[in-house]
# Entry
Amino acid sequence: MRDLAPEMIRCISVSGLQISKNGTALLNVPRLNLDGPGPTMILGPNGAGKSLLLRCLHGLIAPDTGRVEQDGVPLNKDHKARQAMVFQKPVLLRRSVAANMDFVLKRRGLQRTVRKARIAELLAEGGLESKARQSARSLSGGEAQRLAILRALALDPDTLFLDEPTSALDPSATQMIERMILRASTRGVRIVMVTHDIGQARRLAADIVMMQGGRVVEHGDARQVLDAPQSDASRRYLAGGLVT
Ligand SMILES: Nc1ncnc2c1ncn2[C@@H]1O[C@H](COP(=O)(O)OP(=O)(O)OP(=O)(O)O)[C@@H](O)[C@H]1O
Ligand SMILES: [Mg+2]
# Structure
């Protein structure tokens, strides 16, 4: 698998980002710079705008105003081709596990023998070797999520967006996915991930973006945000209280 030099870590920045629907501001992020090595974790209550922000960062939705840049250049097709996203509910093809992997590798134009070796390597990484021939639609939730992440990693992205990838998983499936994410991050893949799991943020995050009401209320070093949050909204969210 490709190793990226530290200087290749992608800097993602946002300026003047606004999305409104029917007169309601859903997202209002004047500035956000994700310029550390990551992983970056986005936290905040339901409806805070985390998924919307993630979709904007990946260029899946165009904001009403403002822009997203990667390494100082407005997000373009080439950037997007090197990014991958894993959704909370994995979207898998009605084919075998191996065929799901093969589908994305084929689109990369890889030779059959290279694809076979790569599929074996990736399935082993996700503990899915024994499931290669099984229909992807018959996988358990945790297995399906692992496959979705492996498929995203198969594209050798330089940036991986994940929206609550472990929210429905048991502790051991969660641990396996966290290991995969950390390995990818160590290889130099830029990870930006939404989670509600504060323990997970503690385990994985280098920096944390705390959101509420469509705004970024705090962004900083993970330990600092978790142990000494600067905003009332962060304090209440981390204390498990109601944020209104
Ligand atoms: N297409 C849309 N039209 C109208 N409102 C929308 C649309 N998409 C999102 N919203 C609203 O924007 C707000 C932010 O949604 P978003 O999905 O980003 O929340 P979230 O922080 O990811 O929440 P959760 O933790 O529940 O996943 C919500 O109030 C949602 O209802
Ligand atoms: Mg969401």
About this structure: The chain has a mean pLDDT of 91.
